[in-house]
Amino acid sequence: MSQKSQVIQLYKTLLHLGREYPQGYDYFRTRLKRVFMKNRETTDPKKIETMIMHGQYVVKELEALYMLKKYRTLKRRYYGDQS
């Protein structure tokens, strides 16, 4: 898979995950676009690979955030707020 297609796939994945972002989709989308546009002139393959790996890390962090939010919601629903 070429780096260009990896970057495009990463952007689409992040955009999809941004729909549930706590501060809102518009906030997430504008920040995401700004970051990708800031780095669009980068041509060094190693630097691009590093940025792709960082983006994949962010994807995993967002997924963990959403899973934690879902877990807390279910816990509150079934066990009440016991704190």
What does this structure look like?
The structure is a single chain. This protein has helices at residues 3-17, 25-38, 45-79. The protein is mainly alpha-helical and 83 residues long. The chain has one domain (3-78). The N and C termini lie far apart (49 Å). 1% of the residues are buried. The model has no long low-confidence stretch (mean pLDDT 90).
Order of helices and strands: HHH
Which structural class best describes the helix and strand composition?
A: mainly alpha
Helix content: over 70%
Cα-to-Cα separation, first versus last residue: 49 Å
Indicate how many domains the architecture comprises. 1
Shape: elongated
Count, helices: 3
Largest sheet: none
Number of strands: 0
- DSSP strand (E) fraction? under 5%
Task: Evaluate the radius of gyration.
Answer: 16 Å
Mean pLDDT: 90
Oligomer description: single chain
Low-confidence stretches: none
Annotate the secondary structure layout:
Blueprint: H1 3-17, H2 25-38, H3 45-79
Salient structural properties:
83 residues; mainly alpha
Short description:
Helices cover 77% and strands 0% of the residues.
